[in-house]
Amino acid sequence: MYDAMIPLSWYVFFINPLFWSWQVTTCIFYFFNCVAWLPHVLYWKHLERKIHKIFLLRGGKYVRLYTQNPLGDRFYSWAHICEFNLLTEDYEDFADPVEEESFLTK
Length: 106
Known about the structure:
Helix content is 31%, strand content 20%.
């Protein structure tokens, strides 16, 4: 959405279809050309923290995380399992007791 404002600001600055003063068109032009590209840069910056692989190790007490940036550099980090909030598929905590649990039997 923000990146669509860059061509629009160029159009308003050079063509000026609404006959605004040069102060208004210059402010719009510089604002959107300075700020509108930030969501794209933040997206690329946060790709470094994207987890590609996660392994439970040492009896399920520790987690080894593989992260990778867009250039292909791999980073390994360790975390203790108590730092995670484990959720089931329906976003309920594992720690809560299940009521009326039905077991599958053949």
